Amino acid sequence: MRPLVIGSVAYDSVETPFGHATDLLGGSATYFSLASALFSPARIVAVVGHDFRSTDTQLFQSRGIDVSGLEQLPGKTFRWGGKYHTNMNIRDTLFTELNVFAEFVPKLSDEHRNAKFVFLANIAPKLQLEVLQQVTAPRFVACDTMNFWINGPQRQDLITLLAKVDCLIINDEEAELLTGVPGVVRAANLILKAGPSIVIIKRGEHGALVFSENDVFYVPAYPLESVIDPTGAGDTFAGGIMGYLAGIGDVSPRTLRQATVVGSLLASFCVEDFGIGALLRVDAEAIAARYRRMAEIVQFEPLPL
Amino acid sequence: MRPLVIGSVAYDSVETPFGHATDLLGGSATYFSLASALFSPARIVAVVGHDFRSTDTQLFQSRGIDVSGLEQLPGKTFRWGGKYHTNMNIRDTLFTELNVFAEFVPKLSDEHRNAKFVFLANIAPKLQLEVLQQVTAPRFVACDTMNFWINGPQRQDLITLLAKVDCLIINDEEAELLTGVPGVVRAANLILKAGPSIVIIKRGEHGALVFSENDVFYVPAYPLESVIDPTGAGDTFAGGIMGYLAGIGDVSPRTLRQATVVGSLLASFCVEDFGIGALLRVDAEAIAARYRRMAEIVQFEPLPL
Lengths: 305, 305
What we know:
homodimer; 9-stranded mixed β-sheet
C-alpha cells in the first residue's frame, strides 16, 4: 500500500555553521515522501506556486511519488528561511512566506480518498480534520503538530483531531506543552488517554520513544560524527515509519518497532547534507547496514543467574 | 574483587519541586559505594568531620563497605545545598561548605594500595593523580571530573590524569567542554586519543553512551513517570558499573555493556526518592526486573530480507 501525505512543499533557505543554501526543495511533504519512497512511494497532497521548478516535479516522479494531488496555483511557492547555531538544536526562523500555502484547501481525489495509511503533516488542525473526513476508511492515521497550534486558538481543533488519529508523532517539548506535565513518560501516557493508541516522541540527537498502552520502545539516534543540516529530519523520520508500515501493510508492535528504527536511520542520513541531498543518495543497502549496526549498538546480554 | 573509591562523603540539603530535605547523607563516595555494594562492596577513601553521625558509619558497614579509609578530622563534614527547578535538569547550587574536605590528602593503606578496580570520583585532578600513584598495580581505573577542573588552572593535571586511566565517565556537556568540539561522538573519539580506552558519556534522562576504539554501546535511561531528586545519579551510575565489573572480575566489552545497563538502572532507582532513600531499598530482584524490561524496551527484529 502507499501512504497519503498532506503537508507542505516549499523552497527553504538554510544557514548552518557549515555553509548556506537557498531555494532548496523542502517542506514536510517533500521530506516525508522521499523517505517513504524507499519503501512505498507516497501520494502527495500539497500546493505549490507558478515558480515551482518542473525538475522538482520530475524528481518526485522519478521516485514513483504520486504528484496528482500537487496543486499548482498562481502566486509563489511557500518559502522558509532558518539559521542553525553551533548547537544545532537551536534554530532561528529568519522568514516564513506562506504565499500560495495560505490558500491551501486540500481536496482529495477519489483515488486519494481510498488511502489506508495517512500522514497529516504539521498544518492547521482544522485542515488536518477536513482532510481526514474525506478519507473513506483509513486503516492507520498519524499526525504531527507544533507549538503554534498547541498554544493557539486552534487548540480545540487539535484536541478533536487527536481523538480521531491512531498515532501522534511529536517532539518531547511539544508533548510536555500539549499536556502541561513535565517528563515525556507522563506526557505520553496522558496523550494516549486523549485518543491515539500510539505516541511517538522525537528527541532529535537523543533518539525516539514509542509509547502504546502496554509497551515502550526506545531507539537511540544513530551516532554521527557531524550534523550538517537538521532541516527535515522529523518529516523524514515520519516518512520512513509510514512508508515502511504501508509497504509491509501491517501495524503490529513488531513492525512498528522496525518502522521506527528505519525512520530514525533515514533521519540520520538526512542530516548529513543540506536539504534532501543525502536522502537522495540513500539506498536499501545503506539502510540495511545502519540497521544492523543499530542492533549491535543497543545489544546486551542477560545478567548471569 | 572490591572497588576502591576516592571521593566525598557529605551532608546534602536538597530542594526539589516535590519537597526539601536537609543533612542527607550524600557525596560521591556515598552514592558510589551504596550502588557498588549491590554487587561488590567498595572500600571508601574519604574524609568526614567530628559531626559525622555514627549511624551513617554503621549504615556503610551494614552494607559490607570498608570504612577503614574514612578519615575523621576535627571540624565539620562537607556540606552542599542545591535546588532543582521544575525542569530537573536545571540545578542551582545554594551553598558549598568544604569544611574538612578542604584538607583532604588521601593516603592509602597497604590493603588499599592493592586495589585492582579504582574509581577516582570528582575531586581535584592533582589529588586524583596522587591517589593513583599510590596504587601498586591497578587493573581498571575510571575517573570523573567536572567543568570546574576542565576550565580551571588544574586543567593540565586533568590531561595528565587522562593518559593514566582506563575509563573516563563524564556528562555530554563536560565532554564537549573538555575537547572544544560539539557533538558527543566527536568529543568521545577525541578523548579516546588522549588516553582512556573507554569513554562513558552520561546524558541524564537520555541515557548513556559507551565509546571504545571499535565499539559504541547505547543504553537509554529507564523510563520513569516521575523523578523526585536527581542528586547522586551520576555517582550511583559509576558505582553500579564499577561494582559490577569488580564483582565479576572482568572488563570485556560484553561485561562492560552489562555493567553500564546495571549502572543506568541503579541511577533510575536513585532518582525516585530523596538522597539515598530509594537506593537503600533496591535489591537484586528489583534490578533483575528492570534489566529484563530494558532488554524488551530496546529490542527490535531484523529487517525482512
